[in-house]
# Entry
Amino acid sequence: MFPTTIALLLFLAPLAYSPGPGNMVFAAMGARFGLRATLPANAGYHVATWIVTFCLGLGFSVLLTSAPVLFDILRWVGAAYVAWLAWTFLRAGLTGGGPDSDVIGVVDGVLLLILNPKAYVIIALMFSQFLTAFPLPELAAVLWIASAFTLNNLLAFLLWTMVGDGLLARFRRPAHARLLNGGFAVILGLVAVWMFVAGRAAL
# Structure
């Protein structure tokens, strides 16, 4: 089972640690609020990750593939939500809002996961490759894969949030903070566009 787990983590590494939408959002949050303030959102995101992954592993992916309109809804709403986050950064950049304003919480983390259609595609692909590879009963294999996926993803998000937090330490002056917020507003705006375009291409 250990070699298969290593293979699973190697499969997930480029997906989890590359600068994708989720990582960029949390890097931006770390840069604006600091690592500690983003922990509730990170917890919400990854509790939702485990639950969604577990449900997909039990066959929920069949519902999603048989009702592609769900992906369209998630794509539109998810892109709109990230665009709204970009607007909050831009507004903070214009008004000089500090790290303590508009702090995101557990619910925001849950929404970021639920409204990301690419997450469902990756999870379904992961189970298609690894569910039968583990020498375990199906339920135990689903639990193991969901837990490994969630913990690996959590580590990646924490690393990216720490990168953002490091930027916060270097941009303490208000003028610098406004510049940083404006830059991340642009990045998150591009992420919203990417979620829409890439999500459509995946369908």
Notes: The CA atoms of residues 49 and 150 lie 6 Å apart. The helical segments are 2-17, 21-33, 35-66, 69-95, 106-114, 117-130, 138-170, 174-201. The radius of gyration is 18 Å. The first helix runs from residue 2 to 17.
